[in-house]
Amino acid sequence: MEKMNHTILEDQKGDRIDKVISTLDEEWSRTQVQQWIKEEHVLVNGQKVKTNYKCSTNDLIEISIPDPEELDVVAEELNLKIYFEDKDVLVVNKPRGMVVHPAPGHLTGTLVNGLMAHCTDLSGINGVLRPGIVHRIDKDTTGLLMVAKNDMAHENLVNQLVKKTVTRKYKAIVHGVIPHDFGTIDAPLGRDTKDRQSMTVVDHGKHAVTHFNVIERFKDFTFVECQLETGRTHQIRVHMKYIGYPLAGDPKYGPKKTLDIEGQALHAGVLGFDHPRTQEYLEFEAPLPEEFERLLNDLRK
Length: 301
Known about the structure:
Number of helices: 6
Helix content: 10-25%
Structural class: alpha+beta
CATH topology of the largest domain: Pseudouridine synthase
Low-confidence stretches: none
């Protein structure tokens, strides 16, 4: 059983305990947290509390996170676009709106459900809910992901990510006209203390570097390619907002008035890595989705 402590901040004073805890991790639903409180997996200053307990500044919250239940993740035929597959690795092009892996309260329609219908051999390193998943892209981001089909491949691919040798290039449409052709954003990222489901640039955050270059400029927008050196949660979305050019359509980090698109205009178009068994460098490119092309054509008009 994993344990986690959190001290209530000034801006959380008066908030309900279940609300506060559910913002600490974007995969924890409020219903799930309420169940933990009822089962006394949550203590405040060493005492058990009810789900409607109102927090005070400096309250010490102790959470004993129960081990995940062996949930029966259902295999679903989702017509995945497979770009490459052998006995070790699979590369898939994820559509917009698809979550990568199941979470409590969200057990169907994910990439993992589709992968389980497509093949039975996926690495078990991340447990029953995330078989084979080496890295993630956000629900509304489209594009390429590598999946490990055994534990050897999984460890090797994760190691490549740690060593920053994986090629990951994204296409994005951002608000504003970027005047310079190239740039590098080197700014550490961490959870936003005011909204724990959001990331932000913080002094003591995790090292994060994004390189970008301008492909095309429009009246009020710019079409860019971003290359990840690190792979932090929401990295491109937060970094582009940080320099004043938030992604079009981004519901969390972008302006309300934006282009006609459901979710951020971000596409993981290029993925390259060394094959974990043969060490041969493989690189794949997925074309822009139709709606992304439509936005570009509208902007060109």
